[in-house]
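Many introductory courses stop at the sequence. We go one step further.
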Amino acid sequence: MTVILDRPATTLRTLISHDLFDRLTARIAVDHPAHAHQADIIMEQALAFLAACAANPGAGLGPSEQVDLGWHTFLMYTREYRDFCARVAGRFIHHTPDDISSETGAGGSLAVTMAAMEAAGYRVDPVVWPASAECSSGRCNQCYAGCSDSPKQKAVG
């Protein structure tokens, strides 16, 4: 039996200074106004994602589209990001784009990523992990939008 800890957002926010967290969320709000209302969640989940990457080197974990906004924002603060990586992971966590699409699509890697986050004790917020949040826990009912365990949708007619 696996026990999953639910680490509160305040714990995630202690991975970086309050000032840096505020600067990152403000940058998300300015650069991505459509997501301004979710800037805190995006950054918290980006931190949880990066902490899961730190705990799972070489696993090839990937963020959701919205969490990637938080990661990109953090990357722009290169010194702070470098220091975070050294402190939390003991190594630099590289951002490597996946230029090759696959049959499984993003949903497969997102399910693995979310499982790694949960195993590391972090809550996965379905607000920023939309498509795979429903499918990774066995609640996927005919979900064809990026879920790796769903059959391919067949054209009708």
